[in-house]
Design goal:
single chain, about 100 residues, alpha+beta, elongated
Length: about 100
């Protein structure tokens, strides 16, 4: 369970100034913020993904997901919607 507690300004001030506020008041730009006006590139979270391919004699499907089983299921479903009745899709590979 997550609880959020809102503190009054007086209680927050008792802990002292934040590092950002301290650097702003002293005019020091070496820590916390850069002196240049260039925007930093956005950093995206990196996570590994599975790519699976399912094939039948007449069609194929590709599934991409961070979850291995989900990638397989997506590939099989994509293959199945393109495959005629009485043909079967099989997972060929997952990387």
């Amino acid at each position: 369970m997550l609880a959020v507690v809102l503190l009054p300004k007086a209680a927050v001030a008792a802990f002292g100034p934040t590092p950002e506020a301290q650097h702003e008041s002293t005019g020091d730009t070496s820590a916390g913020k850069k002196a240049t006006t260039q925007a930093e590139p956005k950093k995206y979270a990196q996570y590994y993904t599975w790519t699976c391919r399912a094939e039948s004699p007449v069609a194929y499907g590709v599934g991409i997901s961070p979850n291995y089983a989900a990638a397989q299921q997506i590939a099989l479903n994509e293959c199945a919607v393109r495959t005629p009745t009485y043909y079967t899709c099989y997972i060929k590979y997952c990387t």
